[in-house]
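User: Quick one: structure for sequence A, then sequence B.

Assistant: Sequence A:
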Amino acid sequence: MVSKMDLATDWYPRYTGTEIEETGDYILLTNFHNYLEKFADRFDTEIKGIGRPMQTATNKNGLTIINFGIGSANAAIIMDLLLAVRPKGVLFLGKCGGLKRSTEIGHFILPSAAVRGEGTSDDYMPRKSPALPAFKLQKFVSEKLVRRNLEYRTGVVYTTNRRVWEWDRKFKKYLRKLAVIGIDMETATLFVVGFKNAISTGAFLLVSDVPMVPEGIKTEESDKEVTLKYVDMHLDIGIEAMAELGDSGEQIKHFRY
């Protein structure tokens, strides 16, 4: 009989071009290739998996970054494939749209939960199960932000499969009723599949647009500006948090009762 672990063990190298033993104990996830390139340049390390669905880079201290692509389906795939790696912690460095007036471009969000609007996570946990991060991991990232005297937001984000929705007034009205702080396409899926697979998972999001108002909708030009101003800091904090987490040896794994 083929097990889920058998599949993950065979498929992880096929999807990433990286052997399981070459992957670190602590993982940064991203869906932007420039994060991967910046990481590889900083640590003078090779990018593996070029031409594969996902690419990785690993530094000498055992921290790996994986570009898994965009959307909830890919988020579920990477969290299933990471079963074979058995990482001690996974942190998603994602971008999101800010939905509150108090949430501006360049702000950071540490989600306390995510609304499961994507549907993918329904294949893993009952619909009424919440999508929650590993609290200790979020707390560790928070400490790094406080150390840098950086302001950040907490709250619930909405995860959707829809990418082109900014025109839809009905959907925007629905988001206002939910009172969520941000919107993205991966966070809820990562939390749910991470929990299902007993992988401690967190998310550290950068507000890249404010799509509830026409002038705040992301464009190619505005995205370049966000990248120039904020991406290096976003990546720096993620690297620092996961590197120090590995050094501290603090257990962040959730327990099942």
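Sequence B:
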Amino acid sequence: MTNLLKSIFISVYVTLLILVSVHACVGVWESGVMSGWAGVGIAIWPMMFFFVRLFLSDVVRTSSNLTVFQLFTWGGFALTLGLGWKSEELTLQLAYSAGVGVLGTALYVYWYSHFQREEAKFLVPGETLPAFELEDESGNAVSSDVFVGQPSLLIFYRGNWCPLCMAQIKEVAAQYKALADLGATVALISPQSHENTRGLAEKFKVPLKFLVDVDNKAAKILGVDAENGTPKGLEVLGYDTDTVMPTVLITDKEGVIIFADLTDNYRVRPEPETFIEVLKQHGLTQ
């Protein structure tokens, strides 16, 4: 139920940011920069910029609490109250600043961005990677046995719709040679469709393994599935309602986990240099 509420929230929140941003621009144009609409803009525009930047640039990770953005929302709310005190539109302006600005941002930072990870606590260094089945982008069966015999880097990503996931894949692809020199197989795993996976695979010239977790079966075995985790509305683009919590696992030649990143915040992710260092520390070479 929580994930369903989150999937609805993020779609509604981003939609409101767009609509209120436009309304704030019109308000400032009509009433001037010394009106309450300027306060609304300051409360709204930074988070609007945040999401635009996610989709237009390769942002892999952000700060956990987005402190600067939250300060802008509170500052905008104060300015809305101060500059729009005598305005007939003050109630609407405060609703925008407090509701979409302060409250919306707080919900996004402290509620939407976080996961519960209790079911995946067995994914720790020293444990053997459980057996599971996947498929490649063409639909051919792929057993987890393929990750035995060489060190493997397994990245569970949410789908092509997730800008941070796409940026993370680009970042790892840029470090592919360093990982390959250490003998590591790099597998990128998502419950999205084979068609979307093929489209993503075609964008890269390095031999990464793009694998499909049909019906999230592997994610459920590992405890990293996120039922109803896809933002509401993306079903029309061919994405399933269920997805995964971003997860990174590194296994040695015997299939034993030597590193696990089970982030509880989808905006906080490890860097490729961390993976390389882990492999080196365990003396894994080609």
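The longest strand covers residues 185-190. The CA atoms of residues 171 and 272 lie 7 Å apart.

User: Thanks, that's what I needed.
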